[in-house]
Amino acid sequence: MSIDPVRTSFFIDGGWREPSNASTFPVISPLTEEEIGSVPAAGTADVDAAVDAARTAFRRSGWRDLEPSERAKHLRRFADELEARAEDRATTVTAENGMPIALARFAEGAAPVQLLRYYADLVESTPVEEQRTSQPLPGTTLVRREPIGVVAAIAPWNFPAVLSMFKIAPALAAGCTVVLKPSPETSLDAYILAEAAIAAELPAGVLNVVNGGSDIGQYLVAHPHVDKVAFTGSTAAGREIGRVCGELIRPVTLELGGKSAALVLDDADIEQTVSGLATASLLNTGQTCYMSTRILVPGNNYDTWLDAISAMSSALPIGDPMDESIAIGPLASRRHRDRVLSLIDRGRSEGGRVTTGGGRPADIDRGFFVEPTVFAGVDNSATIAREEVFGPVLTVLRYDDLDEAIALANDSSYGLGGTVWTSDQERGVDVARRIETGSFGVNYFNLDWGSPFGGVKSSGIGRELGPEGLAAYQNLKSIFLPA
Ligand code: NAD
User: Fold this and answer.
1) Which residue's CA is minimally distant from atom 13 of ligand 1?
2) CB contact at 8 A, 257 and 232
3) Which residues are catalytic?
4) Which residues are paired to 145 by β-bridges?
5) Contact at 8 Å (CB) between 173 and 239?
6) Which of 53, 174, 211, 468 has the smallest count of CB within 10 Å of its CB?
7) Is 240 near ligand 1, meaning CB less than 6 Å away?
């Protein structure tokens, strides 16, 4: 990490603003457990200033009235400045949350830049107004897409840069202005975002960043001058935010937790499947919302699959996430590590058999590490099969026929991701059609900036990415005109 790790101000109204109070958050290295930096913690006055700046930029400074091609130019310049800082952003995120660096270079360095460019192109090619005639009615209707207004964007710690950009890029492209509140664990990397915005001369107030925990998040969500809330995080917090937005009749997008299934069909190639599962089930040390962590395998071959999945998990290199060969880094925080360990204990106490892992690695004496862990011998009613662990913990479940596998996959309060593994792609797509989820992969899983992403059931409301992600920041207005 080559950036200044001690920050003392907020990015508000295009520049650096002194905090209204003296409280700070430490930035703790999950690798060394030591403090490596600090950021100021916002008070309500700082949030007020950020929302005021965003409101002024929206209403009076003309961001919303710029031609889409003008906004696109700003977004591209912002992308160029962010690209110049991509390596700093990636190493900072790895220092903050322990993300393996090879992943951070793509997800936290390159992907936010790609998203800004994608939405710059999209907004230029999406008409703002469209003329409709509805026979047999007389007259025509002008349908307009107008920016919603000030957006409160609240991000989690697992992929802080890219998940913030899922919101910022389409919101700015649509003509909205943004107040971003990152997670306390990962506030430092957002300073690089702010530095890029300054260097790109993004108009003042269009993007603002305040740090804080859930109290400041709550204040921001309910702020009278916020027009839309975009949230990624836990289902518990999403439920609370949804309740507040419901009372306020405030548009909200909720991207929440998951407990997705990998359906391993009887014709799946064992080597390819198990190597694919290393990513589809354990990316970012399992701290990824769409992980396929319930692995459903044919009952008549259960032990073969269990052995292969256990061998794959135990072979994943674990250690310093700055080392490019590492697949499993430390978990993001002590609190989160303890939660994951307590869910492993719960799995054991409910009769689960641990085939590999099951605790902290014996040969690493510091850092918030948990070994990749595989559970067998439980059914889909076990806590370990129902609750999101958000760590490197897999549960291997058996099924007898395809209908049972699909019923088990759908027997979850969540519906975010999921995968099927088969040598017959068409069969895989047929399975995909039957799963209650927002996204699904056949023999792999990869988000696509041009296609919607989000969940069903307790995994959320609304979609990010693609044209649908832009529409989430637009109000529709119909203007009726006589014939
Ligand atoms: P979290 O819900 O604890 O916190 C997320 C963010 O919300 C943080 O910035 C936090 O300060 C803030 N916050 C918490 N409570 C709030 C409230 N009541 N009002 C306003 N803001 C509040 O989640 P986390 O532990 O940071 O992230 C992990 C969770 O995020 C997991 O459940 C994971 O599945 C989910 N997640 C979902 C997606 C998705 O796209 N669906 C992506 C990544 C992570």
Assistant:
1) 214
2) no
3) 255, 289
4) 476
5) no
6) 468
7) yes
